Amino acid sequence: MILKAMAKINLGLDVIRRREDGYHDLRMIMQSIYLYDQIEMEKTQEPGIHFCTNRSYLPTDNSNLAVKAAKLLMDEFQIREGVKIDLAKNIPVAAGLAGGSTDAAAVLVGLNQMFDLRISEKELMRRGASIGADIPYCIMRGTALAEGIGDKLTRLDAMPMCHILIARPGVSVSTRFVYSNLHLEEVDHHPDIDGMIEAIGRGSLSGITDRLENVLESVTINKYPIIRQLKEKMISCGAMGALMSGSGPTVFGIFKDKQEAAFAADQIRKEKLARNVFVTRPFQINRK
């Protein structure tokens, strides 16, 4: 069985409040994109989870979310056969693109089918939430409103077709650092999430790009000015809008014209503004 584990971007990210448990309540518009890891899964007679990957820096034990996801279902359903999981990693790690979560989501979906466990999507998402807040969305995919810590999901209409430039600069951003340095009392403007939902419903790409906003940029741009540089470069090359995804450091730009997106990608590569650069498109699920 071969599965595509798709990356995500945040078209809008608002932080509502800090919770007593230390987490934050969020409102986000999530979008899957055609940038994906490939996961090959195969039953084995030898019991256990046999995990390998093309990236030497990735853990292959239970600290890897994909392994943890496999163990979750195999323990619960007492699966006596084994499974071999071969991960071809393409999504940059620690980039705000849900690379680890989407691998785990694909493993849950794959094991459910492979061993005929007959778990509903809702129940699979509930299990996924126990090991990672982004995993339920990565199971759902497409365009969605995420609330709470990211686990309360509402399906939305498909994002209009466009071209998305992804640029991951050569800096590492700690999610914990970003949230611990976010001072909500100093945030004087919040994303228009409801307006973006309405624009998505109308199929208005400009209505979406006019509302691209991420409150976490108030922390990251000050510490990592390359994020602002990337946004400005994309806009100057014709992007309708540009934004940091998640807690960063990846920046994406939305283009109507594929040639403009490709030109912007070339400029970013020439100026060595980013370590990883991709031109892709939204993954659309028609809800109608």
What does this structure look like?
The protein folds into two domains: 2-155, Ribosomal Protein S5, domain 2 (2-Layer Sandwich), CATH 3.30.230; 163-280, 2-Layer Sandwich (Alpha-Beta Plaits). The protein is 33% helix and 29% strand. It has helices at 65-76, 99-114, 121-129, 135-140, 175-180, 193-202, 205-209, 217-223, 226-236, 258-270, and strands spanning 2-18, 24-44, 48-53, 82-88, 143-148, 152-155, 163-168, 213-214, 241-244, 251-255, 276-280. Strands 1, 2, 3, 4, 5, 6 and 8 form a seven-stranded mixed beta sheet that branches. Strand 3, helix 1 (65-76) and strand 4 form a beta-alpha-beta unit. The longest helix has 16 residues, at 99-114. The two termini are 29 Å apart.
Strand and helix map with partners:
Elements (H helix, E strand, L loop, with lengths): L1 E17 L5 E21 L3 E6 L11 H12 L5 E7 L10 H16 L6 H9 L5 H6 L2 E6 L3 E4 L7 E6 L6 H6 L12 H10 L2 H5 L3 E2 L2 H7 L2 H11 L4 E4 L6 E5 L2 H13 L5 E5 L8
Parallel strand pairs: 1-8, 3-4
Antiparallel strand pairs: 1-2, 2-4, 2-5, 5-6, 7-10, 7-11, 9-10
- CATH architecture tag of the largest domain: 2-Layer Sandwich
Radius of gyration equals: 19 Å
The arrangement of helices and strands along the chain is: EEEHEHHHEEEHHHEHHEEHE
* Low-confidence segments: none
Summed up, what is this model?
α1 packs parallel to α2.
